[in-house]
């Protein structure tokens, strides 16, 4: 049971309703349980929705597949059932099994980087960072780390408030997310 229930979209103030409508239109997105929970604070909603432009930058660096795999690795390492399930859906809809990904050593290194950021609260061992530094420019690393931080913030929000997994994601839950 969520600690704070999502807002009733039909009863939000006009500025929140306008922000929801703009978000849906701009990103062809839905107002999920997380977003409706953020709807209790317009500024919180607007800040967290900056995830979308940052994710677009990550996709420019990594490509679509690695962008969602990176986000999944961070969410999984953060033990966030909702976000992990969201990215499991994307992975599975793309025809892959999240438990049996076929990755190059470079791709695995990137996922290890994201997981380590989440698991170690940003304490990335020098050896891992040096390997990442060989693959990505300074501006790219800044974007990747900023995105990891935004993803972790989203994970924390969902975990603290126990935001429920949206119904459309139920078929994509794993054994882990069903029991958490």
Automatic annotation (TrEMBL):
Highest taxon listed in the record's lineage: Bacteria
SUPFAM superfamilies xrefs: AhpD-like (SSF69118)
Protein name (Swiss-Prot/TrEMBL): Carboxymuconolactone decarboxylase family protein
